[in-house]
Amino acid sequence: MKFYSRKLIKPGDLNANNTLFGGALLRWIDEEAGIYAMTKLDTKKIVTKFISEINFVNSAKQGDVIEIGLAFTSVGTTSITFSCMVRNVFTKKTIISIDKIVFVKIDNDERPSPHGKTIENLGFNSPTVS
Questions:
Q1: Taking the model in full, what pTM does it have?
Q2: Is residue 76 exposed (0-12), middle (13-18) or buried (19+ Cβ within 10 Å)?
Q3: Is residue 114 one of the residues assigned to a domain?
Q4: What residues contact residue 82 under an 8 Å CB cut-off, 6+ apart?
Q5: For the segment 67-99, what is each residue's pLDDT rounded down to a tens digit?
Q6: How many CB atoms lie within 10 A of CB 102?
Q7: How far apart are CA 51 and CA 93, in angstroms?
Q8: Distance separating alpha carbons of residues 68 and 70, to the nearest angstrom
Q9: What is the pLDDT of residue 126?
Q10: Which of 6, 20, 45, 96 is placed for a possible disulfide with 60 were both Cys, Cβ 3.0 to 4.6 Å?
Q11: The domain containing residue 12 runs over which residues?
């Protein structure tokens, strides 16, 4: 698992319980994973197809710094799949884990389109799951 970005939890990111609002965290994850998919597939024409069960493990509070980690799991004809973990930078406690986030390359009519990538030309030797 490689950790790509960090976020400072600010007052606007909190829910009524004064902990990190799950919707804010999911938006950050979708954005980070989407950018990673774009860079691996060499296109901006990707969409989020599927996010598996989301496991909220620990909460984050205002002032915490979190980091978003992604690991490649598989590649299909039109898709690329990652797993995700978000953790507290200082305590290393897991905040959230997601087994599968799938992105699909689309054409101009927003239909799935082959991306022509393989594990080898994506720069991965074999799938990595952490």
A1: 0.90
A2: middle
A3: no
A4: 33, 36, 37, 70, 71, 72, 73, 100, 101
A5: 999 999 999 999 999 999 999 999 999 999 999
A6: 20
A7: 22
A8: 7
A9: 55
A10: 20
A11: 2-105
